[in-house]
């Protein structure tokens, strides 16, 4: 599948091109992965699977190697489209919702050294964008009906999808990965310009050396900071990441041992779908001000709820709330 590799002097490959999705380089602004280039789709993606109300228990595989020749027996015309993308060291095998749901299992690319996994988000984003454009031509839907839900590196992948598709409806970023993204150009990460509406839940926004794997920076139309956006109640205390891991970006074991807060964003979002309790949140300048009772209303407008129904609100900006330490997380 690899059709071209351009090699730089002493620097290794500086450009790679793959059939159907185009070329990638590691020049600015894509310097965040320290020269690592994205691998080919076949080396990164395990499978793409379609679930609908007619095949909830058995997904239909989508042939991502032939994106321009897709014929899906279970596609539900007229139904909204949800694309669910997992993050670092995870998999994407579970169905979600009652729509045209495409789950993205890119475990082949997400279980690598972190910098390589970060680079692979570009391949996954390009493949999904190509698939969606092909499906649109076949089934005639609006991209405004597409909702991408991404966790961790999956949230950053969603940003790459949005940069390739105009007027994408919505992106939900569930604790977007911070390392190798937070301090870099918006071209390499999720930002509010990647969709008509971008909502973000920050649940692990500690400094990286304190084992924070999420991003602190606001990057959506509306950003939610449950419990301040850092360490989540009920999770083990964070353990500092060693200097060797920082330099090598090889922190698989560290990630698995401290990912509780990072994963909470996903659980909060799922709970917002499955329960009647609302994660009501409040605008505030800081979590400290919120905790001292300085932010207790949203003026004349209803306060937004964190999670699936956040798009109902016209509110924009940073919002704070508290949760319980275990499920159910929503406070009544």
TrEMBL record:
It holds the Pfam family Lipase. The keyword Secreted applies. Its main location: secreted. It is found in: Secreted. The keyword Protein biosynthesis does not apply. Residues 15-329 form the Lipase domain. Gene3D superfamilies: alpha/beta hydrolase. InterPro entries: AB_hydrolase_fold, Lipase, Lipase_N, TAG_lipase. Keywords: Secreted. Signal peptide: none annotated. Belongs to the AB hydrolase superfamily. Lipase family. This is Lipase domain-containing protein. It comes from Tegillarca granosa.
């Amino acid at each position: 599948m690899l059709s071209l590799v351009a090699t730089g002097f002493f620097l290794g490959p500086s450009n790679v091109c793959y059939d159907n999705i185009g070329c990638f380089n590691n020049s600015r602004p894509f310097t965040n992965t320290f020269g690592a280039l994205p691998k080919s789709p076949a080396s990164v993606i395990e499978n793409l699977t379609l679930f609908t109300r007619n095949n909830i228990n058995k997904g239909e595989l989508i042939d991502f190697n032939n994106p321009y020749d897709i014929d899906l027996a279970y596609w539900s015309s007229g139904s909204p489209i949800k694309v669910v993308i997992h993050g670092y060291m995870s998999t994407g095998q579970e169905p979600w919702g009652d729509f045209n749901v495409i789950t993205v299992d890119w475990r082949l690319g997400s279980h690598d050294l972190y910098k390589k996994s970060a680079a692979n988000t570009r391949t996954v984003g390009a493949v999904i964008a190509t698939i969606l454009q092909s499906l649109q031509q076949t089934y005639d839907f609006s991209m405004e009906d597409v909702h991408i839900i991404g966790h961790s590196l999956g949230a950053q992948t969603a940003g790459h999808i949005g940069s390739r598709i105009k007027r994408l409806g919505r992106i939900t970023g569930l604790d977007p990965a911070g390392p190798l993204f937070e301090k870099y150009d918006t071209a390499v990460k999720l930002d509010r310009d990647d969709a008509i509406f971008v909502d973000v839940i920050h649940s692990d926004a500690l400094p990286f050396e304190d084992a924070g794997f999420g991003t602190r920076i606001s990057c959506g139309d509306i950003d939610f900071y449950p419990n301040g956006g850092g360490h989540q109640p009920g999770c083990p205390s964070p353990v500092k990441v060693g200097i060797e891991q920082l330099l090598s970006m090889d922190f698989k074991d560290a990630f698995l041992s401290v990912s509780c807060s990072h994963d909470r964003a996903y659980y909060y979002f799922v709970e917002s779908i499955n329960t009647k309790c609302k994660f009501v949140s409040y605008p505030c300048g800081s979590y400290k001000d919120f905790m001292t009772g300085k932010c207790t209303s949203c003026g004349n407008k209803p306060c937004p709820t964190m999670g699936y129904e956040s798009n109902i609100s016209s509110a924009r900006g940073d919002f704070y709330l508290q949760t319980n330490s275990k499920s159910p997380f929503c406070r009544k």
